[in-house]
Design goal:
The protein is of the alpha+beta class and about 625 residues long. The protein has helices at about 10-30, 40-70, 80-100, 110-130, 145-165, 170-195, 215-260, 280-285, 290-295, 305-320, 365-415, 425-460, 470-480, 480-485, 505-520, 580-590; strands spanning about 5, 70, 80, 135, 140, 195-200, 265-270, 325-330, 335-350, 355-365, 465, 490-495, 500-505, 530-535, 540-550, 595-600, 605-610, 625-629. Helix content is about 55%, strand content about 15%. The strands form 6 sheets. The chain has a 5-stranded antiparallel sheet with strand order 7-10-9-8-18, with helices on both faces. A 5-stranded mixed sheet has the order 12-14-15-17-16.
Protein backbone atom coordinates (compact mmCIF):
# COMPACT_ATOMS: atom_id res chain seq x y z
CA UNK A 1 0.00 0.00 0.00
CA UNK A 2 1.28 3.50 -0.79
CA UNK A 3 0.27 7.15 -1.02
CA UNK A 4 0.83 8.84 -4.36
CA UNK A 5 3.39 11.44 -5.35
CA UNK A 6 2.78 14.17 -7.94
CA UNK A 7 4.62 15.87 -10.77
CA UNK A 8 5.10 19.51 -9.65
CA UNK A 9 4.87 20.83 -13.23
CA UNK A 10 1.58 19.07 -13.90
CA UNK A 11 0.21 20.16 -10.51
CA UNK A 12 1.00 23.79 -11.35
CA UNK A 13 -0.58 23.33 -14.79
CA UNK A 14 -3.75 21.91 -13.22
CA UNK A 15 -4.10 24.85 -10.81
CA UNK A 16 -3.53 27.36 -13.64
CA UNK A 17 -6.23 25.65 -15.73
CA UNK A 18 -8.67 25.82 -12.81
CA UNK A 19 -8.11 29.53 -12.19
CA UNK A 20 -8.20 30.53 -15.85
CA UNK A 21 -11.35 28.51 -16.41
CA UNK A 22 -13.00 29.98 -13.31
CA UNK A 23 -12.28 33.56 -14.41
CA UNK A 24 -13.58 32.98 -17.93
CA UNK A 25 -16.68 31.12 -16.73
CA UNK A 26 -17.59 33.68 -14.07
CA UNK A 27 -17.28 36.48 -16.63
CA UNK A 28 -19.55 34.58 -19.02
CA UNK A 29 -22.08 33.85 -16.27
CA UNK A 30 -22.15 37.50 -15.15
CA UNK A 31 -23.13 38.53 -18.68
CA UNK A 32 -26.11 36.18 -18.48
CA UNK A 33 -27.38 38.16 -15.51
CA UNK A 34 -27.88 41.40 -17.40
CA UNK A 35 -31.54 42.49 -17.56
CA UNK A 36 -33.56 41.94 -20.70
CA UNK A 37 -37.00 40.56 -21.50
CA UNK A 38 -36.91 40.38 -25.30
CA UNK A 39 -36.58 37.01 -26.99
CA UNK A 40 -33.05 37.80 -28.28
CA UNK A 41 -31.98 38.69 -24.73
CA UNK A 42 -33.43 35.44 -23.39
CA UNK A 43 -31.62 33.42 -26.04
CA UNK A 44 -28.41 35.28 -25.33
CA UNK A 45 -28.79 34.57 -21.63
CA UNK A 46 -29.02 30.85 -22.22
CA UNK A 47 -26.06 30.95 -24.59
CA UNK A 48 -23.94 32.73 -21.98
CA UNK A 49 -24.96 30.22 -19.31
CA UNK A 50 -24.17 27.32 -21.65
CA UNK A 51 -20.78 28.84 -22.42
CA UNK A 52 -20.09 29.34 -18.72
CA UNK A 53 -21.11 25.74 -17.95
CA UNK A 54 -18.90 24.27 -20.67
CA UNK A 55 -16.01 26.53 -19.69
CA UNK A 56 -16.25 25.93 -15.96
CA UNK A 57 -17.25 22.28 -16.17
CA UNK A 58 -14.63 21.55 -18.82
CA UNK A 59 -12.01 23.48 -16.87
CA UNK A 60 -12.78 21.66 -13.62
CA UNK A 61 -12.70 18.31 -15.39
CA UNK A 62 -9.48 19.22 -17.22
CA UNK A 63 -7.88 20.31 -13.95
CA UNK A 64 -8.97 17.01 -12.39
CA UNK A 65 -7.70 14.98 -15.33
CA UNK A 66 -4.36 16.78 -15.47
CA UNK A 67 -4.10 16.37 -11.71
CA UNK A 68 -4.72 12.65 -12.12
CA UNK A 69 -2.04 12.48 -14.78
CA UNK A 70 0.29 14.26 -12.33
CA UNK A 71 -0.02 11.18 -10.12
CA UNK A 72 3.25 9.27 -9.74
CA UNK A 73 2.03 5.96 -8.32
CA UNK A 74 4.61 3.68 -9.91
CA UNK A 75 1.84 1.77 -11.68
CA UNK A 76 0.58 1.79 -15.25
CA UNK A 77 -2.70 3.70 -15.19
CA UNK A 78 -5.46 3.78 -17.82
CA UNK A 79 -8.98 5.28 -17.79
CA UNK A 80 -12.41 3.87 -18.53
CA UNK A 81 -13.83 6.01 -21.41
CA UNK A 82 -17.45 5.78 -20.23
CA UNK A 83 -16.79 6.87 -16.65
CA UNK A 84 -14.34 9.52 -17.82
CA UNK A 85 -16.99 10.96 -20.15
CA UNK A 86 -19.56 10.73 -17.33
CA UNK A 87 -17.29 12.74 -15.02
CA UNK A 88 -17.06 15.45 -17.70
CA UNK A 89 -20.85 15.45 -18.15
CA UNK A 90 -21.33 15.75 -14.37
CA UNK A 91 -18.97 18.74 -14.22
CA UNK A 92 -20.68 20.56 -17.08
CA UNK A 93 -24.25 19.72 -15.99
CA UNK A 94 -23.87 20.64 -12.32
CA UNK A 95 -22.02 23.91 -12.97
CA UNK A 96 -24.61 24.79 -15.62
CA UNK A 97 -27.43 24.24 -13.13
CA UNK A 98 -25.64 26.31 -10.49
CA UNK A 99 -25.03 29.20 -12.91
CA UNK A 100 -28.63 29.07 -14.13
CA UNK A 101 -29.88 29.42 -10.57
CA UNK A 102 -27.51 32.16 -9.43
CA UNK A 103 -27.47 34.18 -12.67
CA UNK A 104 -31.13 35.21 -12.38
CA UNK A 105 -31.62 38.99 -12.20
CA UNK A 106 -33.44 38.70 -8.86
CA UNK A 107 -31.02 36.19 -7.33
CA UNK A 108 -29.52 37.14 -3.98
CA UNK A 109 -27.62 35.57 -1.12
CA UNK A 110 -30.18 32.77 -0.77
CA UNK A 111 -29.59 31.74 -4.39
CA UNK A 112 -25.82 31.67 -3.77
CA UNK A 113 -26.35 29.48 -0.70
CA UNK A 114 -28.21 27.00 -2.93
CA UNK A 115 -25.99 27.16 -6.01
CA UNK A 116 -22.70 27.07 -4.07
CA UNK A 117 -23.30 23.73 -2.32
CA UNK A 118 -24.74 22.33 -5.57
CA UNK A 119 -21.58 23.25 -7.46
CA UNK A 120 -19.36 21.99 -4.64
CA UNK A 121 -21.13 18.61 -4.55
CA UNK A 122 -20.87 18.46 -8.33
CA UNK A 123 -17.12 19.05 -8.20
CA UNK A 124 -16.74 16.30 -5.59
CA UNK A 125 -18.95 13.89 -7.56
CA UNK A 126 -16.98 14.58 -10.71
CA UNK A 127 -13.72 13.95 -8.87
CA UNK A 128 -14.69 10.63 -7.38
CA UNK A 129 -16.33 9.48 -10.62
CA UNK A 130 -13.04 10.28 -12.36
CA UNK A 131 -11.19 8.32 -9.67
CA UNK A 132 -13.52 5.41 -10.28
CA UNK A 133 -12.55 5.54 -13.97
CA UNK A 134 -8.91 4.71 -13.13
CA UNK A 135 -7.76 1.27 -14.20
CA UNK A 136 -4.50 0.01 -12.64
CA UNK A 137 -2.98 -3.19 -11.36
CA UNK A 138 -4.14 -2.52 -7.84
CA UNK A 139 -6.90 -1.11 -5.65
CA UNK A 140 -7.80 2.27 -4.10
CA UNK A 141 -8.97 2.73 -0.51
CA UNK A 142 -10.24 6.06 0.93
CA UNK A 143 -9.92 7.74 4.31
CA UNK A 144 -13.54 8.79 5.10
CA UNK A 145 -12.49 11.85 7.11
CA UNK A 146 -10.36 13.23 4.28
CA UNK A 147 -13.11 12.47 1.77
CA UNK A 148 -15.57 14.46 3.90
CA UNK A 149 -13.00 17.27 4.21
CA UNK A 150 -12.55 17.38 0.43
CA UNK A 151 -16.31 17.68 -0.07
CA UNK A 152 -16.54 20.44 2.57
CA UNK A 153 -13.70 22.33 0.89
CA UNK A 154 -15.46 22.14 -2.46
CA UNK A 155 -18.80 23.34 -1.05
CA UNK A 156 -17.35 26.20 1.04
CA UNK A 157 -15.01 27.47 -1.65
CA UNK A 158 -17.58 27.22 -4.46
CA UNK A 159 -20.11 29.16 -2.36
CA UNK A 160 -17.55 31.84 -1.51
CA UNK A 161 -16.50 32.13 -5.16
CA UNK A 162 -20.08 32.57 -6.39
CA UNK A 163 -20.76 35.14 -3.68
CA UNK A 164 -17.68 37.14 -4.68
CA UNK A 165 -18.51 36.88 -8.37
CA UNK A 166 -22.12 38.03 -8.17
CA UNK A 167 -21.88 40.44 -5.25
CA UNK A 168 -19.93 42.96 -7.36
CA UNK A 169 -19.11 43.12 -11.04
CA UNK A 170 -15.66 44.70 -10.88
CA UNK A 171 -12.39 43.22 -12.13
CA UNK A 172 -10.93 42.88 -8.64
CA UNK A 173 -13.91 40.92 -7.34
CA UNK A 174 -13.93 38.66 -10.40
CA UNK A 175 -10.19 37.95 -10.08
CA UNK A 176 -10.67 37.16 -6.38
CA UNK A 177 -13.59 34.86 -7.19
CA UNK A 178 -11.57 33.10 -9.89
CA UNK A 179 -8.70 32.61 -7.48
CA UNK A 180 -10.99 31.20 -4.80
CA UNK A 181 -12.73 28.91 -7.27
CA UNK A 182 -9.45 27.69 -8.77
CA UNK A 183 -7.99 27.00 -5.33
CA UNK A 184 -11.27 25.32 -4.33
CA UNK A 185 -11.12 22.87 -7.20
CA UNK A 186 -7.41 22.22 -6.68
CA UNK A 187 -7.79 21.97 -2.90
CA UNK A 188 -10.70 19.57 -3.21
CA UNK A 189 -8.86 17.46 -5.79
CA UNK A 190 -5.60 17.09 -3.92
CA UNK A 191 -7.36 16.59 -0.60
CA UNK A 192 -9.35 13.81 -2.28
CA UNK A 193 -6.12 12.35 -3.67
CA UNK A 194 -4.58 12.50 -0.19
CA UNK A 195 -7.59 10.48 1.01
CA UNK A 196 -6.69 7.70 -1.44
CA UNK A 197 -4.37 4.80 -0.58
CA UNK A 198 -3.21 2.63 -3.49
CA UNK A 199 -2.48 -1.09 -3.11
CA UNK A 200 -0.45 -2.80 -5.86
CA UNK A 201 -1.46 -6.19 -7.28
CA UNK A 202 1.49 -7.44 -9.30
CA UNK A 203 0.78 -9.01 -12.62
CA UNK A 204 -2.71 -7.57 -13.00
CA UNK A 205 -3.51 -7.21 -16.71
CA UNK A 206 -4.42 -4.00 -18.58
CA UNK A 207 -8.08 -3.78 -19.51
CA UNK A 208 -9.04 -3.72 -23.17
CA UNK A 209 -10.30 -0.45 -24.60
CA UNK A 210 -8.88 1.81 -21.87
CA UNK A 211 -7.28 5.22 -22.37
CA UNK A 212 -3.55 4.85 -21.90
CA UNK A 213 -0.62 6.99 -22.95
CA UNK A 214 2.34 8.82 -21.45
CA UNK A 215 0.98 11.13 -18.69
CA UNK A 216 2.83 14.14 -20.08
CA UNK A 217 1.29 13.69 -23.51
CA UNK A 218 -2.22 13.19 -22.17
CA UNK A 219 -1.82 16.20 -19.87
CA UNK A 220 -0.63 18.42 -22.69
CA UNK A 221 -3.41 17.25 -25.01
CA UNK A 222 -6.06 17.84 -22.33
CA UNK A 223 -4.63 21.21 -21.38
CA UNK A 224 -4.43 22.23 -25.04
CA UNK A 225 -8.07 21.34 -25.67
CA UNK A 226 -9.10 23.15 -22.50
CA UNK A 227 -7.16 26.29 -23.33
CA UNK A 228 -8.74 26.24 -26.79
CA UNK A 229 -12.19 26.22 -25.15
CA UNK A 230 -11.11 28.99 -22.80
CA UNK A 231 -9.70 30.99 -25.70
CA UNK A 232 -13.01 30.73 -27.52
CA UNK A 233 -14.77 31.86 -24.35
CA UNK A 234 -12.46 34.85 -23.97
CA UNK A 235 -12.94 35.64 -27.66
CA UNK A 236 -16.72 35.67 -27.13
CA UNK A 237 -16.23 37.98 -24.13
CA UNK A 238 -14.04 40.31 -26.20
CA UNK A 239 -16.61 40.41 -29.02
CA UNK A 240 -19.41 41.11 -26.53
CA UNK A 241 -17.31 43.81 -24.90
CA UNK A 242 -16.83 45.51 -28.25
CA UNK A 243 -20.59 45.30 -28.83
CA UNK A 244 -21.24 46.87 -25.43
CA UNK A 245 -18.72 49.64 -26.13
CA UNK A 246 -20.38 50.30 -29.49
CA UNK A 247 -23.81 50.49 -27.79
CA UNK A 248 -22.42 52.84 -25.16
CA UNK A 249 -20.88 55.04 -27.84
CA UNK A 250 -24.17 55.12 -29.75
CA UNK A 251 -26.09 55.86 -26.54
CA UNK A 252 -23.72 58.69 -25.68
CA UNK A 253 -24.05 60.10 -29.20
CA UNK A 254 -27.85 59.99 -28.92
CA UNK A 255 -27.69 61.68 -25.52
CA UNK A 256 -25.43 64.45 -26.80
CA UNK A 257 -27.71 64.92 -29.83
CA UNK A 258 -30.74 65.15 -27.51
CA UNK A 259 -28.96 67.75 -25.37
CA UNK A 260 -28.07 69.75 -28.48
CA UNK A 261 -31.67 69.48 -29.74
CA UNK A 262 -32.92 71.35 -26.66
CA UNK A 263 -30.19 73.98 -26.93
CA UNK A 264 -28.40 72.36 -24.01
CA UNK A 265 -24.73 72.06 -23.09
CA UNK A 266 -23.49 68.98 -21.23
CA UNK A 267 -20.93 69.18 -18.44
CA UNK A 268 -19.59 67.00 -15.61
CA UNK A 269 -18.22 67.71 -12.15
CA UNK A 270 -16.37 65.45 -9.74
CA UNK A 271 -17.96 63.94 -6.63
CA UNK A 272 -17.20 67.10 -4.60
CA UNK A 273 -18.88 69.31 -7.19
CA UNK A 274 -15.75 70.78 -8.78
CA UNK A 275 -15.49 71.08 -12.56
CA UNK A 276 -12.70 68.73 -13.59
CA UNK A 277 -11.43 67.49 -16.91
CA UNK A 278 -12.14 68.92 -20.37
CA UNK A 279 -15.58 70.57 -20.67
CA UNK A 280 -15.96 71.49 -24.36
CA UNK A 281 -19.61 72.49 -23.95
CA UNK A 282 -18.92 74.98 -21.19
CA UNK A 283 -15.89 76.33 -23.04
CA UNK A 284 -18.02 76.80 -26.16
CA UNK A 285 -20.51 78.95 -24.19
CA UNK A 286 -18.11 81.07 -22.21
CA UNK A 287 -14.83 80.94 -24.07
CA UNK A 288 -13.09 79.98 -20.80
CA UNK A 289 -9.99 77.81 -20.99
CA UNK A 290 -9.51 74.67 -18.90
CA UNK A 291 -7.36 76.57 -16.42
CA UNK A 292 -10.06 79.24 -16.09
CA UNK A 293 -13.11 77.04 -15.49
CA UNK A 294 -11.64 74.14 -13.48
CA UNK A 295 -12.68 73.82 -9.85
CA UNK A 296 -15.08 76.69 -9.18
CA UNK A 297 -13.55 78.91 -11.82
CA UNK A 298 -16.71 78.52 -13.89
CA UNK A 299 -18.41 80.94 -11.50
CA UNK A 300 -16.35 83.79 -12.96
CA UNK A 301 -18.44 83.50 -16.13
CA UNK A 302 -21.68 83.79 -14.16
CA UNK A 303 -23.33 87.19 -13.72
CA UNK A 304 -21.90 88.89 -10.59
CA UNK A 305 -25.35 89.06 -9.01
CA UNK A 306 -25.89 85.35 -9.57
CA UNK A 307 -22.42 83.88 -8.85
CA UNK A 308 -22.58 83.67 -5.05
CA UNK A 309 -26.13 82.28 -4.92
CA UNK A 310 -25.17 79.75 -7.62
CA UNK A 311 -22.17 78.46 -5.67
CA UNK A 312 -24.10 78.37 -2.41
CA UNK A 313 -27.01 76.46 -3.92
CA UNK A 314 -24.64 74.08 -5.73
CA UNK A 315 -22.66 73.30 -2.55
CA UNK A 316 -25.88 72.70 -0.65
CA UNK A 317 -27.13 70.30 -3.33
CA UNK A 318 -23.82 68.41 -3.44
CA UNK A 319 -23.87 68.02 0.34
CA UNK A 320 -27.46 66.74 0.31
CA UNK A 321 -26.98 64.56 -2.83
CA UNK A 322 -30.13 65.96 -4.44
CA UNK A 323 -31.03 66.78 -8.01
CA UNK A 324 -29.84 70.31 -8.75
CA UNK A 325 -32.32 72.70 -10.40
CA UNK A 326 -31.26 76.30 -10.83
CA UNK A 327 -31.24 79.27 -13.18
CA UNK A 328 -28.64 81.99 -13.70
CA UNK A 329 -27.13 84.29 -16.29
CA UNK A 330 -23.87 83.35 -18.02
CA UNK A 331 -21.49 85.62 -19.91
CA UNK A 332 -21.02 84.30 -23.42
CA UNK A 333 -17.97 84.69 -25.65
CA UNK A 334 -19.31 87.93 -27.16
CA UNK A 335 -19.59 89.50 -23.69
CA UNK A 336 -23.39 89.40 -23.42
CA UNK A 337 -25.31 87.57 -20.71
CA UNK A 338 -27.86 84.88 -21.49
CA UNK A 339 -30.29 83.03 -19.22
CA UNK A 340 -29.64 79.33 -18.63
CA UNK A 341 -31.72 76.73 -16.81
CA UNK A 342 -29.56 74.10 -15.09
CA UNK A 343 -30.35 70.55 -14.09
CA UNK A 344 -27.75 68.15 -12.69
CA UNK A 345 -27.98 64.70 -11.16
CA UNK A 346 -25.43 62.61 -9.22
CA UNK A 347 -24.07 59.46 -10.89
CA UNK A 348 -23.54 56.73 -8.29
CA UNK A 349 -21.07 53.87 -8.05
CA UNK A 350 -22.28 50.37 -7.31
CA UNK A 351 -21.65 50.97 -3.59
CA UNK A 352 -23.91 54.06 -3.61
CA UNK A 353 -21.09 56.63 -3.46
CA UNK A 354 -21.22 59.57 -5.87
CA UNK A 355 -18.83 59.09 -8.78
CA UNK A 356 -19.56 62.37 -10.56
CA UNK A 357 -22.25 64.92 -11.39
CA UNK A 358 -23.72 65.24 -14.86
CA UNK A 359 -25.53 68.44 -15.72
CA UNK A 360 -27.04 70.34 -18.61
CA UNK A 361 -27.19 74.12 -19.19
CA UNK A 362 -30.20 74.92 -21.38
CA UNK A 363 -30.45 78.34 -23.03
CA UNK A 364 -33.83 79.85 -22.06
CA UNK A 365 -33.06 83.43 -23.02
CA UNK A 366 -35.77 83.53 -25.70
CA UNK A 367 -38.28 82.10 -23.24
CA UNK A 368 -37.43 84.64 -20.56
CA UNK A 369 -37.62 87.50 -23.08
CA UNK A 370 -41.01 86.26 -24.31
CA UNK A 371 -42.24 86.00 -20.71
CA UNK A 372 -41.05 89.53 -20.01
CA UNK A 373 -42.88 90.81 -23.10
CA UNK A 374 -45.98 88.88 -22.08
CA UNK A 375 -45.86 90.31 -18.56
CA UNK A 376 -45.47 93.80 -19.98
CA UNK A 377 -48.39 93.20 -22.34
CA UNK A 378 -50.54 91.87 -19.50
CA UNK A 379 -49.66 94.86 -17.38
CA UNK A 380 -50.67 97.18 -20.21
CA UNK A 381 -53.98 95.34 -20.58
CA UNK A 382 -54.58 95.57 -16.83
CA UNK A 383 -53.77 99.27 -16.82
CA UNK A 384 -56.04 99.77 -19.82
CA UNK A 385 -58.87 97.85 -18.12
CA UNK A 386 -58.36 99.90 -14.97
CA UNK A 387 -58.39 103.21 -16.87
CA UNK A 388 -61.40 102.27 -18.99
CA UNK A 389 -63.45 101.01 -16.08
CA UNK A 390 -62.44 104.02 -14.02
CA UNK A 391 -63.35 106.47 -16.80
CA UNK A 392 -66.68 104.71 -17.36
CA UNK A 393 -67.69 105.52 -13.82
CA UNK A 394 -67.79 109.30 -14.50
CA UNK A 395 -70.59 109.26 -17.14
CA UNK A 396 -72.30 106.46 -15.23
CA UNK A 397 -72.46 108.67 -12.15
CA UNK A 398 -74.06 111.38 -14.29
CA UNK A 399 -76.62 108.94 -15.66
CA UNK A 400 -77.43 107.77 -12.14
CA UNK A 401 -77.77 111.38 -10.97
CA UNK A 402 -80.08 112.48 -13.79
CA UNK A 403 -82.12 109.29 -13.36
CA UNK A 404 -82.71 110.27 -9.75
CA UNK A 405 -83.76 113.77 -10.84
CA UNK A 406 -86.18 112.28 -13.38
CA UNK A 407 -87.65 110.09 -10.67
CA UNK A 408 -88.25 113.21 -8.55
CA UNK A 409 -89.70 115.05 -11.59
CA UNK A 410 -92.12 112.16 -12.18
CA UNK A 411 -94.09 113.18 -9.06
CA UNK A 412 -94.37 116.75 -10.33
CA UNK A 413 -95.51 115.55 -13.76
CA UNK A 414 -98.12 113.33 -12.13
CA UNK A 415 -99.57 116.47 -10.39
CA UNK A 416 -99.44 118.58 -13.53
CA UNK A 417 -101.14 115.90 -15.62
CA UNK A 418 -103.91 115.25 -13.13
CA UNK A 419 -107.18 114.88 -15.00
CA UNK A 420 -105.47 114.43 -18.34
CA UNK A 421 -106.90 111.38 -20.19
CA UNK A 422 -103.36 109.98 -20.89
CA UNK A 423 -102.00 110.77 -17.44
CA UNK A 424 -102.03 107.15 -16.20
CA UNK A 425 -100.37 105.82 -19.36
CA UNK A 426 -97.67 108.53 -19.34
CA UNK A 427 -96.94 107.92 -15.66
CA UNK A 428 -96.71 104.14 -16.20
CA UNK A 429 -94.44 104.49 -19.26
CA UNK A 430 -92.16 106.89 -17.46
CA UNK A 431 -91.95 104.64 -14.42
CA UNK A 432 -91.12 101.65 -16.62
CA UNK A 433 -88.43 103.60 -18.50
CA UNK A 434 -86.85 104.79 -15.26
CA UNK A 435 -86.93 101.21 -13.98
CA UNK A 436 -85.10 99.95 -17.09
CA UNK A 437 -82.54 102.75 -16.80
CA UNK A 438 -81.98 101.97 -13.11
CA UNK A 439 -81.54 98.23 -13.77
CA UNK A 440 -79.11 98.90 -16.62
CA UNK A 441 -77.14 101.34 -14.49
CA UNK A 442 -76.96 98.82 -11.64
CA UNK A 443 -75.77 96.07 -14.01
CA UNK A 444 -73.21 98.41 -15.56
CA UNK A 445 -71.96 99.27 -12.08
CA UNK A 446 -71.49 95.57 -11.27
CA UNK A 447 -69.64 94.94 -14.54
CA UNK A 448 -67.29 97.87 -13.96
CA UNK A 449 -66.67 96.63 -10.41
CA UNK A 450 -65.85 93.17 -11.81
CA UNK A 451 -63.36 94.59 -14.33
CA UNK A 452 -61.71 96.65 -11.59
CA UNK A 453 -61.51 93.57 -9.35
CA UNK A 454 -59.79 91.48 -12.03
CA UNK A 455 -57.45 94.36 -12.82
CA UNK A 456 -56.45 94.74 -9.17
CA UNK A 457 -55.90 90.96 -8.82
CA UNK A 458 -53.60 91.05 -11.84
CA UNK A 459 -51.46 93.71 -10.17
CA UNK A 460 -51.47 92.11 -6.73
CA UNK A 461 -48.22 90.47 -5.61
CA UNK A 462 -48.76 87.03 -4.18
CA UNK A 463 -47.23 86.08 -0.85
CA UNK A 464 -46.68 82.30 -0.72
CA UNK A 465 -47.01 80.46 2.58
CA UNK A 466 -47.42 76.83 3.57
CA UNK A 467 -51.12 75.99 3.60
CA UNK A 468 -52.89 73.15 5.38
CA UNK A 469 -55.42 72.56 2.62
CA UNK A 470 -57.64 70.29 4.71
CA UNK A 471 -58.01 72.94 7.40
CA UNK A 472 -58.37 75.82 4.93
CA UNK A 473 -61.08 74.12 2.85
CA UNK A 474 -62.87 72.87 5.96
CA UNK A 475 -63.19 76.48 7.12
CA UNK A 476 -64.59 77.47 3.71
CA UNK A 477 -67.10 74.62 3.95
CA UNK A 478 -68.11 75.70 7.46
CA UNK A 479 -68.74 79.24 6.18
CA UNK A 480 -71.24 77.87 3.66
CA UNK A 481 -72.90 75.44 6.07
CA UNK A 482 -76.10 77.51 6.36
CA UNK A 483 -76.45 77.73 2.57
CA UNK A 484 -75.77 74.00 2.24
CA UNK A 485 -78.30 73.15 4.94
CA UNK A 486 -81.01 75.23 3.31
CA UNK A 487 -80.49 73.27 0.09
CA UNK A 488 -80.29 69.82 1.75
CA UNK A 489 -76.66 69.47 0.68
CA UNK A 490 -73.52 68.12 2.34
CA UNK A 491 -69.97 69.34 1.69
CA UNK A 492 -67.24 66.75 2.41
CA UNK A 493 -63.56 67.71 2.62
CA UNK A 494 -61.05 64.84 2.42
CA UNK A 495 -58.99 64.59 5.64
CA UNK A 496 -55.67 63.95 3.90
CA UNK A 497 -55.36 66.77 1.38
CA UNK A 498 -51.72 67.51 0.47
CA UNK A 499 -50.21 70.76 1.68
CA UNK A 500 -48.99 73.41 -0.77
CA UNK A 501 -47.12 76.71 -0.63
CA UNK A 502 -49.23 79.45 -2.23
CA UNK A 503 -50.97 82.77 -1.60
CA UNK A 504 -53.68 82.18 1.02
CA UNK A 505 -56.14 84.78 -0.28
CA UNK A 506 -55.87 83.51 -3.87
CA UNK A 507 -56.49 79.90 -2.76
CA UNK A 508 -59.47 80.95 -0.66
CA UNK A 509 -60.94 82.87 -3.62
CA UNK A 510 -60.43 79.91 -5.99
CA UNK A 511 -62.04 77.27 -3.85
CA UNK A 512 -64.59 79.63 -2.31
CA UNK A 513 -65.91 80.37 -5.82
CA UNK A 514 -65.95 76.68 -6.77
CA UNK A 515 -67.83 75.66 -3.62
CA UNK A 516 -70.28 78.56 -4.02
CA UNK A 517 -70.97 77.59 -7.66
CA UNK A 518 -71.46 73.94 -6.70
CA UNK A 519 -74.04 74.91 -4.07
CA UNK A 520 -75.71 77.45 -6.36
CA UNK A 521 -76.34 75.01 -9.21
CA UNK A 522 -77.46 71.85 -7.40
CA UNK A 523 -80.27 69.80 -8.95
CA UNK A 524 -83.63 70.52 -7.34
CA UNK A 525 -85.39 67.53 -5.83
CA UNK A 526 -82.38 65.47 -4.76
CA UNK A 527 -79.88 65.79 -1.88
CA UNK A 528 -76.75 67.63 -2.92
CA UNK A 529 -73.31 66.06 -2.49
CA UNK A 530 -70.13 68.10 -2.88
CA UNK A 531 -66.72 66.54 -2.25
CA UNK A 532 -63.19 67.92 -2.31
CA UNK A 533 -60.28 65.48 -2.71
CA UNK A 534 -56.62 65.85 -3.57
CA UNK A 535 -53.50 63.93 -4.53
CA UNK A 536 -49.87 64.49 -5.45
CA UNK A 537 -49.06 64.44 -9.17
CA UNK A 538 -45.41 63.65 -9.80
CA UNK A 539 -42.69 65.29 -7.74
CA UNK A 540 -43.79 68.91 -7.81
CA UNK A 541 -47.53 69.27 -8.45
CA UNK A 542 -50.78 68.65 -6.59
CA UNK A 543 -54.26 68.03 -8.01
CA UNK A 544 -57.50 68.98 -6.22
CA UNK A 545 -60.93 67.84 -7.39
CA UNK A 546 -64.16 69.65 -6.50
CA UNK A 547 -67.03 67.35 -7.52
CA UNK A 548 -70.80 67.77 -7.22
CA UNK A 549 -73.97 65.99 -8.32
CA UNK A 550 -75.67 69.14 -9.53
CA UNK A 551 -77.17 70.21 -12.85
CA UNK A 552 -74.04 69.65 -14.89
CA UNK A 553 -72.83 71.63 -17.88
CA UNK A 554 -73.33 70.79 -21.54
CA UNK A 555 -70.11 69.82 -23.40
CA UNK A 556 -70.27 72.81 -25.76
CA UNK A 557 -70.23 75.16 -22.73
CA UNK A 558 -67.20 73.63 -20.96
CA UNK A 559 -64.76 76.23 -22.29
CA UNK A 560 -67.31 79.02 -22.35
CA UNK A 561 -67.95 79.04 -18.59
CA UNK A 562 -64.40 80.30 -18.00
CA UNK A 563 -64.91 83.35 -20.22
CA UNK A 564 -65.61 86.73 -18.67
CA UNK A 565 -69.33 87.66 -18.48
CA UNK A 566 -70.35 84.31 -20.05
CA UNK A 567 -72.77 81.89 -18.38
CA UNK A 568 -74.39 78.62 -19.43
CA UNK A 569 -77.64 76.79 -18.82
CA UNK A 570 -80.80 78.18 -17.30
CA UNK A 571 -80.22 81.69 -15.93
CA UNK A 572 -82.30 81.35 -12.75
CA UNK A 573 -79.52 82.25 -10.32
CA UNK A 574 -77.98 85.69 -9.73
CA UNK A 575 -74.56 86.26 -11.22
CA UNK A 576 -72.56 88.24 -13.75
CA UNK A 577 -70.39 85.49 -15.24
CA UNK A 578 -67.14 86.59 -13.61
CA UNK A 579 -66.62 83.92 -10.91
CA UNK A 580 -65.04 81.16 -13.02
CA UNK A 581 -63.13 83.70 -15.14
CA UNK A 582 -61.66 85.04 -11.91
CA UNK A 583 -60.86 81.50 -10.74
CA UNK A 584 -59.07 80.66 -14.00
CA UNK A 585 -57.05 83.88 -13.87
CA UNK A 586 -55.96 83.17 -10.29
CA UNK A 587 -55.07 79.53 -11.01
CA UNK A 588 -53.01 80.59 -14.02
CA UNK A 589 -51.25 83.29 -11.99
CA UNK A 590 -50.30 80.65 -9.41
CA UNK A 591 -48.68 78.56 -12.13
CA UNK A 592 -51.47 75.96 -12.38
CA UNK A 593 -54.40 75.00 -14.55
CA UNK A 594 -58.10 74.24 -14.14
CA UNK A 595 -60.09 71.63 -16.09
CA UNK A 596 -63.76 70.74 -16.20
CA UNK A 597 -65.50 67.39 -16.63
CA UNK A 598 -69.29 67.60 -16.59
CA UNK A 599 -72.43 65.94 -17.87
CA UNK A 600 -75.91 67.48 -17.74
CA UNK A 601 -78.05 65.92 -15.03
CA UNK A 602 -75.15 64.12 -13.37
CA UNK A 603 -72.87 66.83 -12.01
CA UNK A 604 -69.53 68.51 -12.54
CA UNK A 605 -65.93 68.02 -11.45
CA UNK A 606 -63.48 70.92 -11.48
CA UNK A 607 -59.84 69.79 -11.38
CA UNK A 608 -57.34 72.36 -10.09
CA UNK A 609 -53.68 71.44 -10.60
CA UNK A 610 -51.19 73.63 -8.71
CA UNK A 611 -47.46 73.60 -7.98
CA UNK A 612 -46.59 72.11 -4.62
CA UNK A 613 -44.28 75.08 -4.04
CA UNK A 614 -44.27 78.70 -5.23
CA UNK A 615 -44.38 79.01 -9.01
CA UNK A 616 -42.03 81.10 -11.12
CA UNK A 617 -44.68 83.82 -11.34
CA UNK A 618 -44.94 84.10 -7.55
CA UNK A 619 -41.26 83.89 -6.70
CA UNK A 620 -38.76 86.68 -6.36
CA UNK A 621 -37.77 88.53 -9.52
CA UNK A 622 -35.55 86.81 -12.09
CA UNK A 623 -32.89 85.63 -12.56
CA UNK A 624 -32.69 83.36 -9.54
CA UNK A 625 -35.60 80.90 -9.23
CA UNK A 626 -34.04 78.00 -7.32
CA UNK A 627 -35.21 74.53 -6.41
CA UNK A 628 -33.62 71.27 -5.32
CA UNK A 629 -35.53 68.04 -5.67
Amino acid sequence: MSHPGFSPALVALSVAIAMFAAYTALDLAERARRPGAESDSVRSRWLWIAGAAVTMGGGIWSMHFVGMLALESGMTVSYDPGLTALSLAIAVGVTGAAFTWVARETAGLRAVLIAGPLMGLGIALMHYTGMAAMRMPGHIAYDPSLVALSVAIAIAAATAALWLAFRQHGLTERLAAAGVMGLAVAGMHYTGMAAATFSVAHGAPMHEGQLAARPENLALATAGATFLILFLGMLAIAIDQRRIQAELAASEARFRAAVAAVRGVLWTNDAEGRMAGPQPGWAAITGQTFEEYQGFGWAKAVHPDDASPSIAAWNETVAERKTFVFEHRVRTQDGTYRHYAIRAIPVLNEDGAIREWVGVHTDITAQREAEAELRESNEEIQRYAYIVSHDLRAPLVNVMGFTSELAETQAELRTLLAGHPEAARIDADMGEALGFIGAAVTRMERLIAAILKLSREGRRRFEPETLDMTGLLSRLADASRHQAGSQNATVTIAPDLPTIAADRLAIEQIFGNLLDNALKYLEAGRPGRITVTGEAVGAGRVRFLVADNGRGIAPHDHARVFELFRRSGTQDRPGEGIGLAHVKALVRALGGRIDLASEPGKGSTFTVTLPRGPSMEQAAPAPLPIAAE
